[in-house]
Amino acid sequence: MVMPKKSKVAENILMNVTIRKGTSDDLAGCTDVRADWLGRFQIFHAEGECTCPAGLPVPWIETIDQLRSHLATADRGHALIAGAPGKQIAAYLLYQINEDRGEVVIRGHQPKWRDGAFAAAGAVLDHLLDHLGQLPARRVSVALHGFAWETGMLRMLYGARGFHGNLRFEMLSRSFNLDAGRPKVSVRMLEVSDPEAFYDAEVTVGRFGSAEESRDDCEMSRKMWLVAPARDWVIACVHGQVVGTVRVAVTRNQIGVLDGLHVREDSRGKGIGRALLCKALHTLKDRTNVIWLDVDDDNEPAISLYRAAGFRIQHYSSTMQFTSA
Ligand SMILES: CC(C)(COP(=O)(O)OP(=O)(O)OC[C@H]1O[C@@H](n2cnc3c(N)ncnc32)[C@H](O)[C@@H]1OP(=O)(O)O)[C@@H](O)C(=O)NCCC(=O)NCCS
Question: Which residues have CB under 6 Å of ligand 1?
Fold first, then answer.
């Protein structure tokens, strides 16, 4: 799997991103975001796949005319823009209000994924959801398409906000309110300054039965990790407690390796494994073009997750070896 290159511009913009309603004056800025995403798409998907997991042609993207009409608030189309005042636009979201159906339909959301700008894409969606009460709508729906890996990112973006469904995400505003109490999962790198999370992570992957046991036994391995962190740990936390982990590393010959993907049994089936994998791939994207992992050939949940993320079987032994290239 080839990953997009890092965009410094997007990172800088995100430092003080604000959300506002789009107007016709934003056409050039939005067209740039659109062109940038299309450019990346063409570089990284130059050959091979041309349909998404739903069988629809990709890239599916709004036309410039549709963009223009949303910015002009014509045909009930609206646009929200994320970007710092006077700076480049980081993300936009196009939506339509269907009063008869009491529905807000998201028609376009760019960038679908780009380093850094993913947060802006989330911020613009949050803004829409926060202001839903002011719109004549009870339901939000979105049908966005991309390749497996991209839709994984989209699921993460929308799933974390209470959307559910397959490729065509839907959300009742009412169930969104009910969902507000659902524990929020945060996926982040394990920091050296957070030893408790390190012990917790070891318990999560099943190496120790309790944090106390882990604390006693892992201190040496943690110290070694501090001196030369051979592997980066990605952890998923709920209410501050580690519920899942994955480790990533790059070998001397530039091969990315991924191991220790593990979600606590009571937290499985909620998108945490996918979120961890997305973060792990994101972490590796600037360091390697190929990622290897081993999985037992009867481990259906893991195999299906890896396949959905674009991995392909490379080699069979007692385990299956997957590669992302
Ligand atoms: C594999 C594992 C990490 C998945 O984590 P998870 O949080 O339950 O997975 P998610 O909820 O994010 O599901 C993501 C995808 O995984 C696959 N998946 C998850 N559980 C599945 C199951 N029981 N059966 C089939 N596929 C499953 C699906 O493709 C799913 O996508 P979908 O929801 O669109 O169908 C988890 O089952 C686990 O920790 N297993 C034990 C450790 C392990 O085997 N790790 C892999 C080592 S190589």
Answer: 261-263, 268-274, 295, 299-302, 304-305, 308
Query: DSSP secondary-structure letter at 5?
Result: P
In a domain, 260, yes or no: yes
Residues 243 and 139 in one domain: no
The pLDDT of residue 25: 93
Question: Is residue 324 included in any domain, yes or no?
Answer: no
Angle between helices 148-159 and 272-284 (to 10 degrees): 120
Pair 200, 122 in one domain: no
Give the residue whose CA is nearest to atom 12 of ligand 1: 271
DSSP 11: H
Indicate the pTM of the whole model: 0.53
Encode pLDDT of 119-147 as tens digits.
Answer: 788 888 888 988 887 888 778 888 877 77
CA distance 191 to 71: 42
Last residue of a domain, one of 111, 144, 168: 168
* DSSP result, 121-149: HHHHHHHHHHTGGGSS-SEEEEE----HH
Element (H, E) at 195: helix 195-204
Structural domain count, the chain: 2
> Would you call the peptide bond into 111 cis, given omega within 30 degrees of 0 as the criterion?
yes
Q: Which of 317, 269, 309, 311 is nearest to 293 (CA)?
A: 311
Domain check: are 87 and 140 in the same one? yes
Q: Are residues 108 and 76 in the same domain?
A: yes
Residues 20 and 159 in one domain: yes
115: three-class secondary structure by DSSP: coil
**257-274 residue pLDDT tens:** 888 899 988 888 888 898
Residue nearest atom 7 of ligand 1, based on CA coordinates:
273
d(CA 195, CA 218): 10
Mutate to test the pocket of ligand 1, among 163, 207, 296, 304 (most ligand atoms within 8 A of CB): 304
Beta-carbon count within 10 A of 87 CB: 15
pLDDT at 9: 33
Residues 20 and 161 placed together within one structural domain of the fold: yes
CATH number (domain holding residue 231) = 3.40.630.30
**Structural domain for 96, as ranges:** 8-168
